[in-house]
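Onboarding guide, step 5: your first structure request.
Type a short instruction followed by the sequence, for example:

Predict the 3D structure of this protein.
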Amino acid sequence: MLKQTKSPVSFEVIAQDGQARAGILSTRRGIIKTPVFMPVGTAGTVKGVRFEELESKDLDARIILGNTYHLWLRPGVETISACEGLHRFIGWDRALLTDSGGFQVWSLGALRKISEEGIEFRSHVDGSLRFLSPEVSMEVQAALGSDIVMVFDECAPGKATHDEARASLELTARWAKRSRDKFDQLQREGPDMGSIGLTHPEDTRGGTVARRMPFLPDELTGAQALFGIVQGAAHRDLRRESLERTVEIGFDGYAIGGLSVGEEKSVMWGVVDEVSLRMPPDRPRYLMGVGTPEDLIEAVARGIDMFDCVLPTRNGRTGQAFTSRGKLNVKNAQWKEDQRPLDESCQCSVCQRHSRAYLRHLHQTGEMLAAILLTHHNLAFFLDTMRRVRQSIRSGDFPKFRREFIERLSSSGQ
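The system replies with structure tokens like these:
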């Protein structure tokens, strides 16, 4: 276990069952129990869900994501800075993690040009020529004021050759060091918008802001935290090297990037197996962009602590619900008169109130409420699954939980 010291975040493993870990991640905006699923709020909103619902007992999300690329383009750094940072701008007082934008500009394909300095690209919004680099990404994330900042990296294609992945790894390593250097400079200079109002309750110097924001725990500095990212495509030797070089630079947490981008599941798990247990045991481990409920359970079994994925919200908007017995498509005619909830094992407010028949009616008639309710249920299912995972680790029953959970997901019929 990590002895808490004065740092941007602290992390303590409180229970372990096999490689699965239950921990406490303390941030300047509250405590996060791990393993944790982080809902994705790319453009300053978790699509289809009000922040009041995210904070409710039903969901109780302690941390969400924002994205540097999208927020930089719209509404822009100037607007968010004028509104005193992303937390104040969107009305969210809990923890925020921001992705660096590296994956988004990489995914633009022919619209971008990668060089040593950074990535030049055409904005998908208005076609304007933009340039994103480690330094710019750190500046934008300081203006956003996120509690956890991700380094700027390059994501090599999952099927990249060894030589291609090697070149990408080398560039990512250099960019990681530049991200670290710029981040440290910005922290010294103090432009971090997220530190506004982080005072103790008795400190009234911040006025209404200080009373509204949570106070800063004694063991933390109040600064932003910076996580490094391990790359290397499907090549395990490169993944090991990337991890070693990233740890050598030194970060508050470590992420595995460049997975769940089209590679076979066996390849993904091979990489995670190779990397996860070599990651520093006293730092949180983050598997980026993953995944399905099965993926979360399997990754937890491999020692991963943090996850994010757009599936709960994206699939909710297209009429698909995640349940304890697998995915359910409300568009199917078989649910036309079905009075059962989406998941008879689910205690969320949607399942306690509405039937499959009603949800199908909403979706078939194009009512926006269909997407709202399905998204709420999906997030409740993912977040509740992680609560149950944490409990099973603490009680020493994770292998049994893992087996039964996967078996139910694979069972036929709803």
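Each response can be followed by summary notes, for example: The first strand starts at residue 10 and ends at 17.
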